[in-house]
Amino acid sequence: MTDLKTAQNMMAAAVAARGTEDPEIASVKRVLKLLDKTAKSNRTYGASNPVALKFSQQLLEELTGHLSTYSKLTFLVQRSELLCKECIVYQTEKDGGSEGIAFKLYADGIRELVLHQGLTQEDLMFFLESLWGGLDPTKDDDDIVTRLWSKNLSTLSIVTAEEIAKSSVGSVEFIRLDGGMNSSDSTLRELLDRECGRKGRSSQGGADGTAQGSVAGDGTGSGASSRNNRFQSGLVGYEVTEEELAALAKEIEAESKQDSVMYILDMLTAILAAEKSPVLLTKLFSLWGTIVEFLMREGKWTVLENVLGLLHETDAVRPDISEEHKQQLASLFEGLGRSERVKAIETYLNRTLNANTEGLSTILLLMKPDAVPVLCSLLASLDSPVHQAIVSEALMILAKEQPDPLLRGLSDRRPTYVRNLLTILIKWNDSKFVEAVEKLVRYPDAQVRKEVVRAIGLFRPNGNGMKLVSFMGDSDESVRIAALKLLTSGQYTAPFSLWTPIISADDFMDRPMSERRAVFQAIRATCGDEAIPYWENLFTEWAWTNRKKKEELAILAAETLGKLATPAAIATLELGQKKASAAVRQACTMALSQVQRLQRGKRPSGAPL
Q1: pLDDT digits (tens, 9 = 90+) for 310-359
Q2: How far apart are CA 246 and CA 12, in angstroms?
Q3: Minimal CA–CA distance to 436: which of 446, 450, 421?
Q4: pTM above 0.70, yes or no
Q5: Is 352 helix (H, G, I), strand (E, B) or coil?
Q6: The dihedral sign for the CA sequence 303, 304, 306, 307
Q7: Rounded CA gap, 305 and 495, in Å?
Q8: Domain ranges of the chain
Q9: Phi-psi category of 217—alpha, beta or left, where left has phi over 0 and alpha has psi -120 to 50?
Q10: How far is CA 48 from CA 61, 137, 275, 282, 378, in A?
């Protein structure tokens, strides 16, 4: 198979050497070749197997064609050969032993077999089953002769060694009864019947017996030579036509390209469908576990998906399997998430460039929930974000009822892993996770802290904003801004005492103007009037240092008080108009104008100004 061209040349030479072979002999060889294949497939897989049915149909078609042309198919049986018209038409393969048709027929005492025109598919199937038994478990000891005689088929006849021996008793002439086998017009059965008739006439004093006896002689001369030629070894193997040669070449080419894994799986599937032996089935189910591990190591997820789908349907295909075998199958599925198997997935994905992931999600989802801790380890160890996303999606489904392994993983020092876990928790959107998430407010990675802010906003959309205020001291501006967006929403409360350390810090005045404005608006939203003393102090305090920065804060305070618009806020703005610096006074005036506009907008129609 590795050298297809050489094989084709050898076949072509064989065809050329064959010359002008007798068409009937060629036809017989084709039939017997198919008969051999069909008998073996029936014995291996069972008559109902698709492969066996295919061969049986091909055999019936070939045999029907032969019988329609030559009316019958006749062959003599030797220990390792079948002969027709002095030609070897079938020969047992070397070391074939009892597997060959010739030996099987010979061992059961058959010396000639004839198939006649009109043979039906039912007759053919009975003959095939008779070759290897299996018709009736209580009659496994019956030989082929007994089975065939029990049916008494009109389209099939045999001659047994016992019949020949009886006809030969007291008469050496019968040694040349096969002398008429030079053509397909005479069969050993016909010659045997003729000899029996001759003996009957001879016993009545007829002259035919003497004449025929003289022809047989002592078994020497031309008669012995013809018999010796007939039973000498001839061609070895199968003869093929040009059409068969072309088809065989295509089969060789197809087999050379066939995926070896799929070939093995096809064989195992056939065995699963047909094997009856409990011992062999136990070995087969054990082998499936090895197959699963191999496919995981090689990243053949779609093949593995098909294999697991097949095994899942085993009860429907083989309702006769025992409870022990069902338990083997259940253990196979329960063991999909074993640590060594998941480790094989990790190794394949991390070592393989552009690793195939088609079908991987299905394999992960076939695992049991007890595989969640192992899948968490897999998620933490994968390098590619694409692969991480696939495992995260599987965990989102498998771990929903037992999230503890994910919550424990939040303390991991690998930020990518923790972000993936937070993503899963956020998608679950369950407020019971808020306490576990809030523990990460000081996590070293800024992206993780940013995800924590998002999670807190989702799990706790209102109420106490203490944890969000704690992010105001974060070293990363994007984290602070994310928290400020939530705090300015008006959905959270926080005492001003939490804000004091932040706005009193030396670096606060160095922050961007936009951030300082956002902080003041967050204070307004979470504290309200509680922060007014601080802002009032900004209006009246005389600054000797950082005067410009503090004036900027006072201007922001006036803007914030204008949006607060409470009576206390208005009174503070009016105070600022009188005692603050010029720039701040102007800001207070603008804020009061904004308050008046807001109040006019809220005044009912027709109310006095």
Answers
A1: 787 777 778 878 888 888 888 888 888 999 999 999 999 999 988 989 99
A2: 10
A3: 421
A4: no
A5: coil
A6: positive
A7: 58
A8: 22-230, 495-609
A9: left
A10: 18, 17, 12, 22, 45
